[in-house]
Amino acid sequence: MMRKMVFLLVGLMLASWSLFAQADDILLGAGDVIRVKVYGSEDLSLETRISEAGVISYPLIGEVKVGGLSTAQAESKIAGLLKKGGYLLNPQVNILVTVPQSQMVSVLGQVNKPGRYSLDGKRNVADVIALAGGVTPDGGDALTIVHNDGKSVTKQMVDIYAITHSGDTSALPEVVANDVVYVERALRFYIYGEVQRPGMYRLERGTTVLQALSVGGGLTQRGTERGLMVKRRDADGNLQEIVVKKDDLLQADDIVYVKESWF
CB of 104 within 8 A of CB of 116? Predict the structure, then answer.
């Protein structure tokens, strides 16, 4: 639980810092709705949607390709065309993205509010998880970022536990438009037999057999620590029985079996 709180606090803190990201970071794209204003020339102000070709139709100067440009670059381009056409001597153009349809990222898996979210600037993976309400109690320490640039699809595994505990938040990878962030479910282990609370439990890193016994409430009066056994699947998926010691580390999906004492 403490690990989840640390992760969520880091994400919320980084998200608040990133509110200061400059609009210049935003690249305009198809589907975005923008509001264009020219200081002192209300008749040249309009709100329009960028076409699939990345183009808008603008008064006096006609079609202008703005797709792929930052807002600052698009402002300069429109101002330059207005000046070149002799319509204004020194046009002051401002562009505001009202619906950033092209800059969306999907956050799925073990988060409180899975869905699609707008990227209003540079964002890292902790930022977008914070937007999705943080990780649920069932969420794990790892996540996957799926990148799709229209030509190929790649997957990037991210070890959040290692990053947050090292304190080097610069290692948090950035996400871009059309990325999918998937938060994995936490690893589990099972314990049954002569323990007080048999069942399924979250597998924390470095959990030993002895710690698993403690999580299970300890032994019953009939239980014994002698001959502890773990059932574990091998590389082929076959279930194997392994005799373990109390200080052996557990693996994901291990089944710890506590025998009944014969004495």
Answer: yes
170 and 151, same domain (yes or no): yes
Concatenate the DSSP letters of all residues of 135-154 into one string. B-TTEEEEEEEEEE-SS-EE
Q: How many folded domains does the chain comprise?
A: 3
pLDDT one-digit tens code per residue, 65-103: 999 899 999 999 999 999 999 999 999 999 998 888 888
Domain that holds residue 115: 104-185
pLDDT of res. 20: 37
Tokens of 190: 């099972």
Structure pTM?
0.68
- Report the amino acid identity of residue 160: I
Handedness of CA 15, 168, 175, 111 (dihedral sign): negative
Residue-level pLDDT at 13? 40
Q: How many residues does the chain have?
A: 263
Q: What's the rounded Cα separation, in Å, for the pair 174 and 1?
A: 26
pLDDT at 160: 83
* Beta pairing partners, 39: none
Structure tokens at 214: 């403690």
Alpha-carbon gap, residue 161 to 202, rounded angstroms: 15
In the Cβ-directed half-sphere of 154, how many Cα atoms lie within 13 Å?
7
